[in-house]
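Quick illustration, no need to memorize.
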Amino acid sequence: MDDRIDLQEFYNGLDLMFQRKDSGATGSYLESWLRTAEEKQDLSGIVAVCNELGGFCRVTGQIDRAKELYARVRSLLEEMGLAATQHYATALINTGDVHLMVNELTQALELFLEAEKLLLSCGLDGDYRMAALCNNISMIYREREEFAKARQALDKAFCIIKGLPERGGELATTYVNLGELQVRQGQLEKAKESFLCAVKIFEEETGGADVHYSAACAGLGEVFYLSGAFQEAEHYYEKARDLIQRDFGKTPAYDMVCSNLEKARQRLRQPADPGEAPVKPESGQQNNRRKGAGEQ
């Protein structure tokens, strides 16, 4: 009797579930496959399903469950003698993603720097996973207002990605991160250019299907809001809201964008005095990746 799950069947079914955009059904699908892998005592299968389920839990706000799943992945990889491999680096990155999402910056940075060393030791300094990791490291430095280090990490990401033409989505995501850094530095015109570059790539290369497209639209919403162009802000916040719901459901990122959309609408309904500064929209890294740096 076969004692391993059929990973090709699993991934094919998962792709179909994501296309259906039903988060409840997707969660049930993943949990069912995890039970099957456990029943078969298929360690590789458990690792594969836990990676996907961990990512799903992260973007749907189930943070403790995501941490638990990724800790299990790391433990299993160690048990399998794979602690010095790219797969373990992936597990470190995925765990760091969860900490980053809830603003646990110190823990996230430690994990990302450990993953960076491991990828280098595996000879993967020019790999797309290194580019994704540099993006994540940049986010942390941005949140810590270490802007020079944040830009340095992004420059490294751009350098890698531009040598990987098949990774257009990762290039667009890097433009999103650059735009967010420029917003933090008050460089709104430059930020608008960066977000528009990302939108162009997402629309031309994926037809708007990439799950990071919403982040580019939310970024444009923030730029227009801070610039006082509230009608344009409303348009892009609406677009970001709909894209997040399409790809992930009503997650914390969805709630944040809805809040910002309402702020923009309030300003349209009741314009404030010209000298009054608008209430700043909420901002935060959505980090809504399905796999991204966590692909195996």
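Residues 263 and 279 are 8 Å apart (CA to CA).
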